[in-house]
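FAQ: What does the model actually see?

It sees only this:
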Amino acid sequence: MRGMKFTTLAITALLASACSQSDNALESSTTGNPVVVDKPLSTGAPAVARINKSGGTKIAVLVNETPITTNDIRRRAAFVKLRRMKGNSRSIAKKELIEEAMKMKEARRIRAVVSDSEVDAAYVRFAKSNKMPVNILTQILNKRGVTKRGFKQYIRAQMSWQRAVGARLRATGGRTTGPAKPNYQSWLPDKDNQGKQEKEYTLQQVVFIVPASKRSSILSKRTAQAKRFRTQMNGCANAKQLATSLTDVTVRDLGRIREHKLPPRWAKDIKTTAAGKVTRVQQTEKGAEMLAVCNQRSVQSTAPVGSEDLFSGNIQKQASALDKAYLEELRKVAVIQER
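And it is asked to produce this:
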């Protein structure tokens, strides 16, 4: 199954065992008594309102007055193991949570924190992109000790930090476009594409319009006309001039479109058409249509990371220079108290 790439074998076994488990597992202390918490304050490590006095969980670290509890670390350590990251899982977990607390404080300061509805939608999209029902994803996370709540904290921190970094990029004259929120296939930031290249196409659309009421009677004729028109085209140079003498023909400049944003219907034709040439004619809802490729060039990719990369650990390894510098700024002024 394509979506099961925690590692394929591990997730296959996990799904098989998770299907028989209930998805209403409680987040409990080591003594078996629940830890009562307030609603999360939109941080990577939510504030704890009341710590279990029997010793089930304790505040392990305070980051700018945001508490990180032993239960937070336990859940994140389980997530580290699920991602097959090398090293001491508790140490990695603590480091991640400390950094997330700093990032979330900054995200709140600049009003970049994503909403609960965005996090919920991202959780559902992640399940769908991995081809599993949401309740099965929840069962998997609960069974492995990560929990739905712990995973959503991670989602919120990743998405909010991406927005914060994007704001800094814009403020410093860097990239001004990019996904503000995840698409259907992915919710992760696009840091993992640093250094990767994709094509950018400058396109022009030519449509021989066919009214819906006449489609059955004239579509074939209009398609033949479009094909003859195509043979006279010199890329994007003369299409508008040629169209002036024709009826119900539109020529529209579509501008620049990145490879990963090409319409699925046209993607293959565009990719196989050289600059200065025209795609084959297609019959669409508009009529008989073709696209001229005015120009193409290689640019740095802004495509979202695939869902299979979620548990790879590569996001941290390939963080951009700006991301690292931004985080270092926050670290210098952070007040971190380990207990």
